[in-house]
Amino acid sequence: NIWLLTFYNNVNAVMLFIPLMLVSGEMDTVLGFNNIADLNFWFLMTVGGVFGFAIGYVTGLQIKVTSPLTHNISGTAKAAFQTVLATFWYSEFKPFWWWFSNVVVLCGSGAYALVRQREMAEPAKTSKV
């Protein structure tokens, strides 16, 4: 059940996040924040929480209809593409091996997508016969 998985993920995050905040001393930083009572701050935190929940839900759906491996590879490809895009956007200089490694990730992800597409098309061809 996707809703149950999303619920467990959020409960686990809270159970891990709050003790880590206490151990690392971040709780004092949060409580000392000047805008902790500001309505705009809580509005933006709520919007961020809703989007975070939505991303978790969509992640669960993606895993449900594909596979954990496909989700992992698509996430890695997305991150690599965003990194390359940001490098162009900010006109950063990167060494050859940095570019090579990103090209390997993107080409490998593309190859995986191509193989999966062909695997998924195969049952469709055999069912028509």
What can you see in these coordinates?
This protein is mainly α. The chain is built from 5 helices and no strands. The protein has helices spanning about 1-25, 25-30, 40-65, 70-90, 95-129. Helix 1 (about 1-25) crosses helix 3 (about 40-65), helix 3 (about 40-65) crosses helix 4 (about 70-90) and helix 4 packs across helix 5 (about 95-129). The protein starts with a helix and ends with a helix.
- The end-to-end distance, rounded to whole angstroms, is 35 Å
Shape descriptor reads: extended
Averaged pLDDT, please?
90
Helix count, DSSP H or I runs of 4 or more residues? 5
Structural category is: mainly alpha
Considering DSSP H and I runs of 4 or more, what fraction of the residues is helical? over 70%
Q: What ranges have pLDDT less than 50 throughout 5 or more consecutive residues?
A: none
> How many beta-strand runs?
0
What portion of residues belong to β-strands?
A: under 5%
Give the H and E element order: HHHHH
- What integer value in Å does the Rg equal? 21 Å
The major β-sheet equals:
none
Keywords:
129 residues, mainly alpha, extended
Q: Quick summary of this structure?
A:
By secondary structure, this protein is mostly helical.
Write the layout of secondary structure elements.
Layout: H1 2-24, H2 26-31, H3 39-65, H4 68-89, H5 96-128
